[in-house]
Design brief:
By secondary structure, the chain is an alpha+beta fold. 32% of the residues lie in helices and 19% in strands. It is globular, with a radius of gyration of 24 Å.
Amino acid sequence: MTETVAAIVAAHRAGTLSPAQTVARSLARIREYNDPAVFISLRDEKQALSEAEALSAKSAAQLPLYGVPVAVKDNIDVAGLPTTAACPAFSYLPSRDAGSVARLRAAGAIVIGKTNLDQFATGLVGVRSPYGIPNNPLRSDLIPGGSSSGSAVAVSAALVPLALGTDTAGSGRVPAMLNNVVGLKPSLGLISTAGLVPACRTLDCVSVFSLTVDDAMTALAAMAGPDEADPYSRQRPLAEISAFPAKLRLGVPRNGQLIFFGDKASEQAYGDALKRWTALGATLVEFDLEPFYETARLLYEGPWVAERYLVIRDLLASSPDAIHPVTREITIAGARLSAADTFAALYRLQALRKASQRAFLDIDALVLPTAPTVYSTAQVLANPIELNSRLGTYTNFVNLLDLCGLALPAAIRPDEIPFGVTLLAPAGHEAQLASIGRVFHADTKLTLGASKLPQPPLAALPAGMRGDEIAVAVVGAHLSGMALNGELQALGGRLLQAAVTAPDYRLYALSTTPPKPGMLRVEAGAGSSIAVEVWALSAAAFGKFVAAVPPPLSIGTVRLADGRGVKGFIVEPADVNGARDISAFGGWRAFMAEKAVV
C-alpha cells in the first residue's frame, strides 16, 4: 500500500516505484475523480513529470519527501501558477514559491496543483467559492469544511497524500474532521507565511493535511524554521516524536461547559473518545473552558476582522461584486473599527492569555471536539453565517492564544458522519501532541480518509530513543572529548551516533571568544556534509540545554544525510559575515586538529 507519505518515500528509495509514476498516478486520479471544484489550477503534466524525473539525479536518502505529490491551497504562492484566493478578480501570477512551498520542494516534494478554498480564507464551511463546492468524499450531502476545502478533500480522496492548507480560525482543523484526515496546525511563526495571501496576518499559519500523524510531522520538519522574508517567523525548536508518556494528563472541560448544539451523536462520539484516551492510560483533568470561549468571541467581534478588511479593501472599493456576498458582509465590518476598539481588545486578550496559561499548569494538552456538529451544504447555504460560527466553537481561540493543535479522526458515527478531536498545547509542543496523537489515531483503527484502506502499523521511534527523549545534533565543542562535552553528560545525555548532515550546510569559524563553529543551511545540495554527533536528552534536559545556548548560535532542525531531521546547532546568515568558511574540513574536530598543528 503506497498511499501514505512514508510508504511512497520508501517505495521510491527502494526503486519499486518511481517519483514520475507516483506523480502520473496522482494526476490520473484527479482526472478520474472528476470534481472540478477540488483544484482551481493544475500543473502541466509534462512539467510535473519532468521535475519528478529530475529527482533521480539527487540522493534519495537526503530528501524526506522524495517524489511525494503535494497539493497547495490557492492562497499560497506556487511559482508559475496563479494565486486567486478563490477570487478571479484578485488573481496574480507569482514568480517565486512561498517559503513553505520552496522548502517542500527542497525536501523532494512535487507540487501537483492549487486547491479551492472559502474565498480569502474566510469561512469554515467550504461553500464560499466561485469555483464551486468540493464534494465531500465521505457523504456527498455534507459540506467539505473550510476554508481549506480542496486540500482536505484531495487528501481524503487519495488524490495526493499531502496538502497544504492555512489556519487562522480553524481552517486547517475543521476540514480535517469532516474528511477523516489528520490536520496539523503549527505554532505561530514556525512555518514561514511569506508568499501567503493573509487573512489575519498576525494569526495566520500554514497547516498540513495528511493521512497519518507521522506524515504530517515529516512535512512540518521540512518546512519549519525562520525566514527573513517573513517578519512574523520565529526560531522555535521542533522536537522529535517520542514514546506515549506514562503519566499523560489531558484537560477536558468542566461538566456542562461543552456545546454540541443538540447533536447527540457528536456528544456520544466525544464521550467515546475520552474513554479511548483513558484506556490508553491518560488521566482526564477538568479545566475552565470559559476564558477560551471569550477569546473565541474576540476573533470576529473584535478588531481582527479589520485585518481581513485590509487585504481586500481596494477590491471592495473598486469591484465589490467580485467578492462573495457572505465574505463581503463579514469583512466590511472591519472598516468600522477604531483604534480604541483595537487596544481595548488587545488588553482583554492579554488577560485571557494569562487565564489560559493557568489551564496548562496541571495538564499536558487539552482534548476537545474539533467541531461540535456537522451540517449539510443545503443547511449552510440557507444559514451561512450562524452555522459557520458554530463550527468554530472549539477552534476560533487557538491562534489568538498561540497554541498548536493536532486534529485527529476519532470515529465514524452510525450515520456515517466523521467525528474528530483536537489536541491543543502551548506553542512549541507539536512533537508532544504528535507523540500521543499518533497512538490514539492508530487505536481507532479507522481507515485512511474516504478510502477503505487500513492504517499502516505505527513506525518505530528513532533508534536508541527512550521515553520523552529528544535527539540533538552537536557540531562544535560539545562533541565527544571536546571542551563542552561535559555539559551534555551532566544533563544525562547519551551519545546515539556519529553522523553527517545532508550536503546543505556551510561551516564557519565564528569570530567569538572562545572560538565556535557556525553551521548555516544553504540551498539543498549546494553545501557540504558536516560531521556531527547525535545525542539524546530528556525533554527537561533539552529545555535547560537550549536555554544555555549563547548567541549567535541557536537551535533549529538539522537535516542528516539519511533524511532525518533532528534538533541541532545552527546560525543565521547575518552572523557569518566576515567569518572564515571552513566547510572543506568537513567538521569542527578536523578544523581544530589542523589549527593545533599550525
